[in-house]
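Good day; I would like, with your permission, to put a structural problem before you. What I wish to show you is a protein chain and, alongside it, a tokenised description of its three-dimensional fold. Please examine both parts with care and let me know of anything in them that strikes you as inconsistent. Thank you for your consideration; the sequence and its tokens are set out here:

***
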Amino acid sequence: MEVSGTVKDDQGETVIGASVLEEGTTNGAVTDIDGNFKLKVKEGAKIRISYVGYNTVTLPARQNMVVKLEEAGNIMDELVVTGYTTQRKADLTGSVSVVSTDDLKTSPDADPMRALQGRVPGMTVTGNGSPIGTGTVRIRGIGSFNSSQDPLFVIDGVPTTMSLNSLNTNDIESMQVLKDAASASIYGSRASNGVIIITTKQGKKGGKMKVDFSANLTASFYTSQSLMNLCNSAEYATAMAQAALNDGIDPVTYAANYGLNLNAANGTPITVWNPATEQYENYTVNGRYDGFINSAKTMKYSDTDWLDEISRTGFSQNYDLSISNATDKYSALFSLGYKKNEGILKYTSFENISARMNSSYNINKNLTVGENFTITWSRQVDCAPMENALKMAPIVPVYETDGTTFGGPVGSMSDRQNPLREMYQNRDNHLDYWRLFGNAYVELKPIEGLVLRSSFGIDFYTSFIQSMNHTFHSDIVNNNVASTTLSNKNDMNWTWSNTATYNFTLADKHDFSVLLGVELSKQNSIDWSGYNEGYALEDPDYMWPNAATGTARVAGAMVGYRLASFFGKVDYNYDDLILASFTMRRDGSSRFGKGNRWGTFPAATLGFRVSKLLEKDWLDDWKIRLSWGKTGNQTIDNNAQFGLYVADYGLDRITSTAYDLFLQGSGTFPSGYRATQLPNANLKWESATQYNIGTDFTLFHNMLYGSIDWYIKDVDDMLINPAYIGTKGEGGATWMNGPSLRNWGMEFMLGYRKTLPCGLGLDINANADFFRNKVTSLPETATGSYAHTSKENLVESGQPYGSIVGYVVEGLYQTQEEVNASGQANARVGGLKYADLDKNGVINSDDQDWIYNPVPKFSYGINIGLTYKGFDLSMFWQGVYDKDVYNNQKFQTDFWAVTDAGSNKGNRLLNAWNTNNTGSTIPRLSTTNTADEGRASSYFVENGSYLKLRTLQVGYTFPSSLISKLKMTSARVYLSGQNLLTIKSSSLTCPDPENPDWNYPLSTSLSFGLQLSF
């Protein structure tokens, strides 16, 4: 008799790849992509249905069966898309991390990758507090020097490298991270930095329409953990006076240069130590001009907290509605999403509307057509003048006395812009863009086991911005010309993929899956910009080119590239004991010359399921994996192989400084063309070869599970655009193949889950990873572009890429005798003491050493989940151990004059070294930087280790007996917090180890959410 049926999980979703076996025999089948199976069995037989991660079910054989599998611990998402095809997670032989999409559904981040920070071993995600919310993703260390290091995203089979912040997070059904070359090599030339495969949701069979709605409201704010502690006006004047007294300068005269009067009749008292008299001196500070800091008397002496002035409590809101249904004939899902983030900095925001339609239709049992399509609109206003806010002197008022004119620097202050004015005048400079992304496909099953599929995908992006530069007048800083820059960019990328997949079994135990494919891709980008100045009225509706009366300039270009690919893959499974695969891809790219356009990228894997032999009750599954593969990189400029020239006449042909290309004064190329890039017809593929050894295991009936991976990744013929010596003159830039790099590391993941007799559910998992890298070769033509000491370069030193060379600081000079004996030019008492490493009695460039290593000892994440009845609690910690940070904020917190004398400083410098404070480690304040103490040195390198509580969430799911009365199938509310706590090294002097520069700081946020299903 013939039996047939469908296998579903406990959520009603079909299960792909489930094993259906006639009990007591080797006669069996595997469910197809729709979860269906057919099998001929003996009359009265029973069939056994099994799937990794689910409890096995044995039932009497019959026609039209509907089999429901109960999860056995929900160890993993079993459907894994690995490139043009699907596999069981249990059968993978490459290094693939399957991401739990539950972590994404409640995240307030605009970019779903931000929610994965620390959750995937071997993948590093960084970002900042911008409302745009994009994350930077790195997989297994550094992939290249100058070309892109971003992974390839493949969404429903369509490749892209653009940001995901316009993607509706709630549309994501599954996500896989392909980390090693063996699993990623099927994508060949675009896979050297890893591949992240995203599959969006489809309609689910269930007999009725399903409606899902979710909402999330989030408030974000800064805490002391994220911001520098700045001087107030009294502290600012104290530091200024102290620097003057240390240099033997009259502090009253010095402060007058910055609009201050230290002998004011009415003002704020301050006390400063005078090292010359060895006693404290008292001053009273106010504005130099009768309480004003400028001679025009328009700006009163103030005490402005600039960080407070430019920031606010930011609010974001996310809404999502989806409607779906499916039958044996069709599947359809429509979703609509809206998110808006009012940034934590005033006048900044990000807004996005997305609509998705996924559908498929079974024309007959052999032919299916479908599409996955999304259209999004986004608007972003981003202006992050954090450096100006941190450096603007607090004595400057936000507004002048008229209440409308923005205040600005005076006297000898550095010409820092008023950060609030910058943000206010930027409020109408929004970037608007539309993005159309998706594919249409046809799938034919002419015979059993054979699937022919053709898919055409597009990724279209069009953007426009009208950037207005307004006039302003703020004492010494002014702009008298209003101007606009209009820019538009259109990117069109299409990909046409055609594949044939054939699954068959030989001798009952030898299962094969053969994939053959061809793919064509083309990218075309057109961008232009126009600059105009001179407007009688400064209004967004008026400031268009037709209204301009002054200078006008236009620029634009069209670029693109093409990629042709042929690929194949064979997967082999012997009785679930031996697993193997072989992949081959050949890519041709127009970015290279004719002789080097094609690259070949093979890969092979081998897996052995030890548990199949041992057959222990406590050993559910144990698999050992070996893999090797090559991937490529061609993410360079589209014109990298060519010599480039631009027409640049300057303001006119007479005053142009460009040269006559052919020295003829007239003819084909008139004077004014100049070279910008040298050609390189020998430019060829960058390639990465990777070896991987790994193991996956589940024990004690899926209660304990984990994986371990060890890898080596060698990058050769790296594509770089190095610096060139000045004697080459203008146009010496060129692309070339150069350095080689080795990354190696390990990744660990361990999880435990169990439901206790009391009903408390535990789900605890942790991951850790480390990697090391070193430059293994560096051509002489490129050595000047990368760090080196006088004795060795990156290769000879074995240092990782990104290392920094500098001076080693041994403390501070305590006496004049030490200074005299130092051999250090312009050394000073209380100043930085540099080590004489070569012991020749002179401090010079030969005394530099490697002082900064950008690679941490290891990174880790800990996720704790608890459930009890309807309540759930989750907590996620993420950390980095022993990582160097180069603390650029120290230039402002520890020195008065290394950068921007007269700008505001961090109040750490109030504890600087002096004759009454010789135990301090902060250099003595000075009005000048004659000792060149801003040079690269170990003084700025600090321990950036940290442990952060990234997420803490409490939720409640209402009982079905209650919500069924409201015609709902599920309802949940939750409250969560992000970046709530940071534990960092006590030696770190900046607030946040993730932001030792002047970037947009990370904020703390609280969210309330609602999830409903009907």
In short: Residues 73-77, 649-670 have pLDDT under 50 and may be disordered. Residues 620 and 699 are 5 Å apart (CA to CA). The longest helix spans residues 233-246.
